[in-house]
Design brief:
The protein has 117 residues and is α+β, with helices and mostly antiparallel strands. The chain has helices at residues 5-14, 30-46, 62-68, 87-100, and strands spanning 16-24, 53-60, 73-81, 105-114.
Length: 117
């Protein structure tokens, strides 16, 4: 995901990108991911956070789950341009959305990535 050209342009422009990683124990569909995105947009706008973010959600099949010693479900990652001042608020917004959608999940943490150059 950090090889994505748009993410790389954010890193070049802002110096860093921040990702928040979740594993969702179920098969998310586009409409559910869109709902989470809308919640993050509302919270970002009301708290003067960056509007530049991307969402990656990828299914984890049985073979991948065995290889990664985890369970089947969906890998969900939100990537933000720059650093996030109040990342806990964003995490709580996503967690609230996942609970609303009745998914079990684990928050795997956040990571700050810089330029590879």
């Amino acid at each position: 995901m950090f090889n994505d050209p748009e993410i790389q342009s954010w890193i070049n422009e802002h110096g860093l990108a921040t990702s928040m990683n979740f594993i969702v124990y179920g098969d998310m569909v586009q409409e559910e991911a869109d709902l989470l995105v809308k919640g993050v947009i509302v919270q970002s706008a009301s708290n003067d956070l960056t509007n530049n973010f991307a969402v990656f959600y990828d299914p984890i099949n049985e073979e991948q789950a065995r290889a990664w010693d985890t369970f089947q479900g969906t890998s969900l990652t939100f990537v933000f341009a720059g650093t996030i001042k109040d990342d806990q608020m964003i995490v709580e917004t996503i967690q609230d959305g996942l609970r609303f959608l009745r998914y079990k999940y684990d928050y795997l943490g956040h990571k700050i990535s810089g330029s590879y150059v």
